[in-house]
Design brief:
Layout lengths: L2 H17 L5 H15 L4 H17 L7 H19 L4 H11 L5 H4 L11 E6 L2 E6 L2
Antiparallel strand pairs: 1-2
Helix pairs in contact: 1-4, 1-5, 2-3, 2-5
Length: 137
């Protein structure tokens, strides 16, 4: 398998698992299932179920000593690598999907953000859902 396809599979697996815990998850899942539907329609339903199982595994992991995210990403890298090995012609479509899903290439991520602040002698601290009002002497 050529190095570019291996790198693409690695990137796809890592991106997919990384997006499972974000607000972009539904869009990610829908995009991946649609991609699989076009590449291997007979596996699309199984892939949808595997995505849900992977997300549940990721959410259930409370042991910070294990690298569950890395292990799950490696599983998806393998699935995607096998698909690319069998159907290298879908690599461009997969790359387009990754470009669309990647947080670093989203329009919001590339937009410039400017913040302005001024000192008033009073401040607010937001901590774990609590709004604390602090007045400095």
């Amino acid at each position: 398998m050529n190095a570019e396809l291996v790198a693409l599979a690695q990137s796809a697996g890592t991106t997919l698992v990384g997006l499972m815990a974000t607000d972009a998850w539904e869009r990610t899942r829908d995009g991946v299932v649609a991609f699989w539907q076009r590449a291997r329609p007979e596996r699309a339903d199984a892939v949808a179920a595997e995505l849900s199982n992977t997300r549940e595994d990721l959410a259930a992991d409370t042991d910070t000593d294990t690298d569950t995210e890395g292990e799950l990403a490696a599983e998806w890298q393998g699935r995607i690598r096998r698909l690319l090995t069998d159907q290298p012609q879908v690599a461009e479509e997969l790359q387009r999907l990754l470009d669309e899903l990647s947080p670093s290439t989203s329009p919001a991520a590339s937009a410039s953000v400017t913040q302005h602040a001024s000192a008033t002698g009073q401040s607010r601290v937001y901590q774990a859902g609590r709004d604390l009002h602090i007045t400095e002497p």
